Amino acid sequence: MQFRLVRYFTLASLGMFALVALSLTYFERQQGDFFRRTGDEQRAFFGEVQQSFTRQQEQSARRDLLTIHEAGNVNLTRLFANALWDKDFAPFVARVQTIDARACQEIADVDDDKGKKVAPPEKTACFAEIGKRIMALPDFKAIDAKVFASMKKSTVFKIKVFDLRGVTVYSSEHAQIGEDKSANAGWRSAAFDGVPKSELTHRGKFSAFEGTVENRDLISSYLPVLDPGSSRIVGVFEVYSDVTPFLQQIQHTSEQIRGTANANQTKLEAAALENQAAVDATSYRQLATIAGLLVLLFAALLAIVRRAEKIIRQQAADRANFHQQLAQSEKMASLGQMVAGVAHQLNTPLAFSQNNILMVKDALQSMELPMQVAGKLSSILEDVEGDKVTIRVSQLKANLDKLQNGNVDLTMLQEMLKDVLGGIDQMTELVVNLRDFTRLDRAATTNADLNESLHTVAYIAQTVIPRNIELVEEYGELPEVECNPSQLNQVFLNLINNAAQAIDGPGRVRIRSLAAGDKVRVEIQDNGSGIPDDVLPNIFDLYYTTKPAGEGTGLGLAIARNIVAEHGGDISVSTRVGVGTTFTVTLPVRQGEPLARAA
What we know:
There is one protein chain. Helix content is 58%, strand content 18%. By secondary structure, the chain is α+β, with helices and mostly antiparallel strands. Strands 4-3-7-6-5 form a five-stranded antiparallel beta sheet. A five-stranded mixed beta sheet has the order 11-13-14-16-15. A hairpin with a 2-residue loop joins strand 13 and strand 14 (519-526). It starts with a helix and ends in an 11-residue tail after the last strand. The model has no long low-confidence stretch (mean pLDDT 78).
């Protein structure tokens, strides 16, 4: 079977190049996706940084606003305390503290539906009653009027005053007077720690000095009230300041910063898209360059492979020619071995045929005179009258005497010529078998009867092998086999000769054939010495022989195996030392591919 180098190289290399191209495309896409993801992540990070900066700026502005207003509320509280505490609020708070709130504070809080501690209705009602009692005090209206007068037209929307029990003793929103703030964290920070506590809140509706306002941002601050001239805490103020304009300004600034950040983000995304397009274009150029290089590489390799295939084919042709020459040499060697036997087979009939012909020649020479006498007889006839012939014998007297002394036995001559014809038949049979052995008059590949071929080979082999070796032919019924008969005859003759040479003295070589499905099997068995274990692995090697120098070429079995392999068959051997050897040739009935013509 011929190995199609260019075809397989083309298929394999195109497959590999396609795989490489797909791999490069995949990795280029992965690289492009990586750059794209990196760009997206960077843009997202930059956007997050911008948003974080905007949030931090807004938070910082809110925190600064809270700090500034808390400081202002502290100053306001001090001014309020200096103006109203000693004269108005201190006596008023003292009278409020005479109202007992312990009964209300002892009412336990309950959990609402969210799990938060809240005052139950009875507790709320209890403190509301305290608020009514506070507002019923004689000084309440005067203090309330002074507070409204002081805070009107200011940014302060509401003021609340708590005593150290946490009770709301005053609120510009009267409904909140009497409420308990003892649990409030802002009140506790101012009342117990002396630390102001502020928070920024948004209210949809809010009761202020100017009336009810809506949608406002407020800062509420719990501020400790110190006794003038000392650091003693005497109460707590809660001041609500309106910072809606400030927050609106902060939000406007934040929106401007956010807009700038969004614009920068848009520019960054546009630049990233341009960079990605440049990266993709570079990747495509790289892929195109690599594809071009692969095509050039494939073309160069294809040229090399074509040249290599041409060289390989030439080498294969040279090797086939060499094998044919080896086979021809082996065939000539086999024919050389047959020359002596064939000569002997021809010499015997030739010798007695030649002798018989010489004897017949001599006999024919002795019949020359009678033939001459018969010829002369017609010339000496005197007269013919009816049944009477008159002969003048005076002239032939002497010759007739000689004819009587040289009588010829014609029967003997016929037997001698019959023997000559028998010898000619023997020589004809030998020539026919030689012709059948070589098959020179037939096509190289044909449908042949292997039994006929084996019989011919056995006939020829008998001219070579010793006479004390018996050839036994056992042929089974075989289908015609598509083969090169001349080549197979060479295989069979070689195996028969080897089998005979393995027998030292008298012996037997058995030739057996049988059908095996779509194959036929031929066995050449001998009862010779067998093949030693150290020799058996090498018997099919070229030039390997165990015969003395000059007697063996080491070609026979190697050529036999090649011929059988070319026929799609197999040759195997089984042997036992001292018992004998059997070579088995297995051949398909039909060939898969045309056989090479015989040399």
